[in-house]
Amino acid sequence: MTSLQVDQQYDGTEAVQSGESPEGGEGYQRGLGARQIQMIAIGGAIGTGLFLGAGKGIHKAGPSLILAYALAGLVIFFIMRALGELLMYRPVSGSFSEYAREFIGPFAGFVTGWTYWLFWVITGMTEVTAAAQYMQFWTKNADGWLNQPQWVFALIFTVILFCANLISVKLFGELEFWFSMIKVTAIVGMILICAGILTIGFSDAGDTASVTMLWDQGGFFPNGIGSTLMTLQMVMFAFLAVELVGVTAGESKDPKKVLPKAINTVPWRIAVFYIGSLIMILSVVPWTHFQPGVSPFVAAFEKMGLAVGAAIVNFVVLTAALSSCNSGMYSTGRMLRQLALNGQGPKVFTKLTRNGLPLIGTSVSAGLMLFGVVINYMDPGRAFELVVSFATISGMWAWIMILISHIRYRRRADRGEVPQSSFKAPGAPYTSMFALAFIGLVIVLMALDPDARISLYAAPVWGLILGLGYLGIQRRKRTAGTIPENSNS
């Protein structure tokens, strides 16, 4: 299917609804400006994986976790440049499923769209619950209206973010801008404090702080290279959602100008926020002081004798969780609408409000996120952990589809079958092949890790559900006479 053929599918409904050409935002309003897109791109790379998850990685690999983040960051940059080339070829909302459908096949687009939707629904469930848990830091000893059970705050946060996503895409962008600003400010502040300790020597850690702690506490690989490799899965999970900037393509005011700039900031974002912060923290606090389940930022503040740091980090982690849930509200409605436009989901999801918002798709997704509040209230145990763990593998599926789509696009573009992109990925398609191999390695490592293996067990079950659903859609189309009997479309 060529770009022209794909674009022709959007003649009519969405153009009428928005007053725009189908070539534009597919009925959406282009309400996201450069400032918001940049911060969405930055915020997508910073989440609880860094603020909380890095503690487990440091405990397992020591200072060599820095190398794991650097290597994974390089792969993420290759993924984002592959996505950028596809976006400049055809900027479209719901980009992952669209490119998979065009360059791999209809079934790949179907699986990608529904899997990415599921990823954000599950992420929304877990993050809104996490946000409610973080509220207990301030409310557990409070009196009056603040002394509420955890599920009440989960419900409040879900309703607030849902309403914000139904007002306008601009409000979503503004919320994400400030959520990201808080996260960025916290990390930059931590880096500056650590730099001051290393140079001036203030705080309780001033007498021992030194960059030599990166290799003096048992070496750079204190637990061996094998332990460092086993952290790669956790490191990659920390970068999940960095691809969200691609979903904004249909609602960016100037996508062909804004999106390349946002994607090109990936290297310095990873260098500063991940590698830079870890180098600073591990130069001030020995890696042996960090434990799984404890934020390395909190541990570092405590070592410095700055007790207020725990409250600050708790607030930052709260905003990170709300940011993730906010992104889930935004992306799920767009994914459902894109699937419906392609005949791979209920037609009711194609409808937009006067503000160009996918009300029904967002409402259904938010309703399922509320189910996460119910599960949390009922203490689900291992059943809920199974659902949560599946979010990781479903998120990486989007990366795999981006890379395969990019490789196939480049081949067709080189043959002159589709237009060349104005934003070519350097070193492609070999960089995309390398990134695919790296993700394959991460999946193998997941299979070797008992804690991560559970997500691989769930994947075939979801695949079977999608396969049956796709066959049902195809059978219904053939019955209706919309596709010929021998068609695979």
UniProtKB/TrEMBL annotation:
Biased composition (Polar residues): 1-20
UniProt cross-references to PANTHER family, sorted A to Z: GABA PERMEASE, L-ASPARAGINE PERMEASE
Name the UniProt record assigns to this protein: Amino acid permease
Gene3D superfamilies: Amino acid/polyamine transporter I
Keywords of this entry: Amino-acid transport, Cell membrane, Membrane, Transmembrane, Transmembrane helix, Transport
Record field: transmembrane: 39-58, 64-83, 103-122, 151-172, 184-203, 223-245, 266-285, 305-325, 357-378, 384-407, 428-448, 454-473
Similarity-based family: Belongs to the amino acid-polyamine-organocation (APC) superfamily. Amino acid transporter (AAT) (TC 2.A.3.1) family.
Record's keyword annotation contains Glycosyltransferase: no
Places the protein is found: Cell membrane
Database matches in Pfam families: AA_permease
Family matches, as PROSITE patterns: AMINO_ACID_PERMEASE_1 (PS00218)
Keyword presence, Transport: yes
Membrane topology: Multi-pass membrane protein
